[in-house]
Design goal:
The chain has helices at residues 4-11, 15-37, 40-57, 67-85, 107-126, 129-140, 145-152, 156-179. The longest helix is centred in the last third of the chain and has 24 residues, at 156-179. 72% of the residues lie in helices and 0% in strands.
Length: 184
């Protein structure tokens, strides 16, 4: 959680505090961009654009919402705009270092876990934009329903509805993947 004193100092023009603030949020910004856009280069571009926007818009931040929520709103909007411009984005394969099993003795279990993770990413990629966004914010970024509502500027019941439908669609897609019926 970002220290509000740091935010206020950055808003008053303290360049060092602004740079420290950007460093504190850059990993979260990149992670959100990566899960929403699905590939490293686009995520890096979106993260950079988001950090620049935070840098230039910090004086406009009002403490009506948490600073992290404000940041997520910026990165989410940038990613949604980018995704709409390029609907045919492909997701990168899951990297081994992201998924480690406690015991490395059973290679078959590890390969099955990696396959399931790839299926999950592919399924998330198949969701409509609005469902994908709430699913990523809830289950990848661990946002509360209220934080998602504030970030996306949508009613709480809409968040719940999108999550419900998104989970249903993910279950159907994952069932299809397990049966071998969907080819990415």
């Amino acid at each position: 959680m970002v220290d509000i004193k740091l935010v206020r100092s950055a808003q008053k023009g303290n360049r060092d505090d602004l740079i420290q603030l950007l460093r504190e949020v850059e990993t979260t910004v990149y992670r959100t961009a990566y899960y929403l856009l699905g590939n490293e280069q686009d995520a890096l571009d979106a993260a950079q654009e988001s950090l620049i926007r935070i840098y230039t818009k910090i004086p406009l931040y009002r403490e009506e919402a948490k600073f992290e929520t404000w940041v997520q709103r910026i990165v989410t909007n940038i990613c949604i705009d980018r995704f709409r411009r390029n609907k045919n984005m492909e997701m990168l394969p899951i990297e081994n270092q992201e998924h480690k099993l406690a015991g490395k003795d059973n290679v078959e279990d590890e390969m099955e876990l990696l396959g399931m993770a790839e299926d999950l990413k592919e399924a998330i990629n198949q969701l409509p934009d609005h469902h994908r966004t709430v699913v990523v914010l809830r289950y990848i970024q661990d946002f509360s329903y209220h934080e998602i509502s504030e970030t996306l500027n949508i009613p709480l019941n809409t968040v719940k509805s999108y999550l419900f439908r998104g989970r249903q669609q993910l279950q159907e897609l994952l069932r299809d993947y397990q049966k071998g019926g969907v080819q990415g």
